[in-house]
From TrEMBL:
Domain of life from the UniProt record: Bacteria
Keyword Lyase on entry: yes
Organism of derivation: Leeuwenhoekiella aequorea
Keyword Oxidoreductase: yes
Name of the protein: Catechol 2,3-dioxygenase-like lactoylglutathione lyase family enzyme
Length: 133
């Protein structure tokens, strides 16, 4: 194995998800988070991108025949200082959420004091929203 002798500066760029229906996923994430759609500058494929803030992106790659299998431990997390407002937004949209243990319509306070909720997108991917700002 080679050793990297340079000090490199890495930044998070994007998350890419295989989805059955790209339009459905775009609609879901925009209704939940109101992320704006941005141009897919990589290709002329049916992959679509959303801007999630600070230059970070969420990519939806069409895979209509894909079998998506994941569990809650495989998730991505977003933070907001207004978790209570966000939870009310989930309730208004009739989006089922739970705490880490799976208790429905309950948030969870971690040992470090951070509150969090979990829910799934149309393809079964887990999303955590917390107040770790």
């Amino acid at each position: 194995m080679s050793k990297l002798n340079l000090v490199l500066d890495f930044k998070f760029n994007h998350i890419a998800l295989s989805v059955k229906d790209v339009a459905n996923s775009i609609a879901f994430y925009q209704s939940i988070f109101q992320f704006p759609e941005i141009e897919n500058t990589a290709s002329s494929s049916n992959t679509r991108w959303l801007e999630i803030g600070e230059g970070r992106q969420l990519h939806f790659i069409p895979r209509p025949e894909a079998i998506i299998k994941t569990n809650k431990a495989v998730h991505f997390a977003l933070s907001t200082p207004d978790l209570d407002v966000f939870i009310q937004h989930l309730n208004d949209l009739n989006i089922e959420y739970s705490d880490w243990r799976g208790t429905l319509t309950k948030d969870y306070i971690r040992k470090d004091g951070i509150a969090q909720v979990y829910f799934q997108d149309p393809d079964g991917y887990w999303i955590e929203v917390n107040n770790a700002i």
